[in-house]
Amino acid sequence: MKSLRVITVLLLLAIVVSCIEKTSTSEEYLNKNKVSQETYLSDTNILRNVVASYIDSTNKTRKPKPKSKILSIEIDTIFYSSNSKMALLYVSKNKNPYVVENKDSIQFIGGCLIAIKDQNNSIKIVDKLKYITTTSEIPNKISRDLRLMYLREMGYVEGKYNINDNRFWESDVWK
After folding, report:
1. CATH code assigned at 166
2. In whole angstroms, what is the distance from residue 164 CA to residue 33 CA?
């Protein structure tokens, strides 16, 4: 039983690593900005609440009001610029009565938000990027799909840059 768990963990790790490495961004433009693990974990905790509030506030303005309810938010990945800008991939776990593919009516929604962090470490969402993905399957599919869209496919659209591309930080999404 223990060896089965070890094999499962290794397979999941291999899938995640293979997803991370696939990008259409050329080496010369790859974002190599690093932050400490402490900063990353702190930002992840702050962003869970900020993203939940942002999604909730945008849902309040929709007519008719959505029937789904956010159960949890996970921050998949955060990309940092050399200044105060950040882009983040997130996955929300929602209860949606219209989902019939599973008995619990669970739906996973993944997207990308752009944010700015001020000197007081307060983070503000400034916009969401266009593409989202949804599934009622396991959340790993959402993570894979998000990475495919934002690390590979955006680079193929004229005038767009992947979020791991240094040119992304000066692109029109920040205007």
Report:
1. 3.10.450
2. 10
Question: How far does CA 39 lie from the centroid of its chain?
Answer: 17
Contact 102, 132 (CB under 8 A): no
Structure tokens at 128: 């969401």
pLDDT at 65: 57
Q: Check whether the bond before 66 is cis (ω within 30° of 0).
A: no
- The strand pairing partners of 72, in sequence order, are 93
Q: Are 164 and 31 in contact (CB under 8 A)?
A: yes
The answer to whether residue 54 sits within a structural domain is yes
Quick: pLDDT tens for 83-139.
889 999 999 888 877 776 667 788 888 999 999 999 888 999 998 888 888 887 766
What is the pLDDT, as a whole number, of residue 174? 81
How many domains in the chain?
1
For residue 61, give both structure tokens.
Answer: 């303005």
Tell whether 159 is covered by a domain. yes
